[in-house]
Amino acid sequence: MGRQVKLHPAMVIVSFLIFDALLGFVGVLLAVPSTVLWANLPKERFPDEPPQESLWPAPREDARADFDRESAIRINRILTLA
Question: 57-71: per-residue pLDDT in tens?
Answer without folding.
Answer: 666 666 565 567 777
